[in-house]
């Protein structure tokens, strides 16, 4: 079998589940076939106003491409390995399959600051007064303690990403800090968050890997983009996994998902 042939990964181990709870993310190698990544890049290059073979035409540090729902993207989002991991991390029947992979921020080697490299968590539901038809201005969107509207943050690597290729920066364990910060706001949640110091004393990890790698992240994980210092454009999707039902932090049957366990653990530690 060729070394780059697709081999479905097993379900997450107990150690990986505990890593997700404690660190806020788990990396799945070969989560989708490399061939799908190649097909997806070919589709996206058609919409990029640069020559893929001439770096002198790469005149902007980042290009944001609209949501793609063609077959390579749908297949990448719905492999058996990922569905099994969703069941384990969110709960069977508690998440909705994706039919696309959302916006792609394609990053290019460039001397200019991309202008979007601040530490943040992804907001997940509109606040009062938001235009329901507005799809680009998320300044008034919110995030709350039960992560309304978002079960996971996901990072789909559609190109190989080394330490030089603008890998997403992750503050390991920062989802605990974020949960404790959100708790007082209750279901209403918070918006316009400034998170430069949130989890700043925690170690950093980089979302590197081969094309086909997926990082499944707790929705409260603090992360950031960065400048591209390599030589090859970086293609990455960062869609949410949508919940089929709200997270619950007080289940009568005690059947908590790892996402819920992490939030509960953060709140319990704040009271200890």
Describe the structure.
- By secondary structure, the chain is α+β, with helices and mostly antiparallel strands.
- It has a single domain, classed as Jelly Rolls.
- The chain is built from 6 helices and 13 strands.
- The chain has helices spanning 14-23, 34-45, 71-77, 80-90, 174-182, 258-271; strands spanning 25-28, 62-65, 95-96, 104-107, 125-126, 141-142, 152-157, 169-171, 204-206, 214-217, 223-224, 236-237, 240-243.
- Strands 1, 3, 7, 10, 12 and 13 form a 6-stranded antiparallel beta sheet that branches. A 3-stranded antiparallel beta sheet has the order 9-8-11, with no helix packed on it. A two-stranded antiparallel sheet has the order 2-4.
- Helix 1 (14-23) crosses helix 6.
Which regions have little confidence, pLDDT < 50, spanning 5+ residues? Answer: none
Main pleated-sheet profile: 6 strands, antiparallel
Number of domains: 1
Task: Give the SSE string.
Answer: HEHEHHEEEEEEHEEEEEH
Number of strands: 13
How many angstroms separate the termini?
A: 53 Å
Question: Which of globular, elongated, flat, extended, rod-shaped describes the shape?
Answer: globular
Count of separate DSSP helical elements: 6
Protein name: Phytanoyl-CoA dioxygenase (PhyH)
Organism: Bradyrhizobium erythrophlei
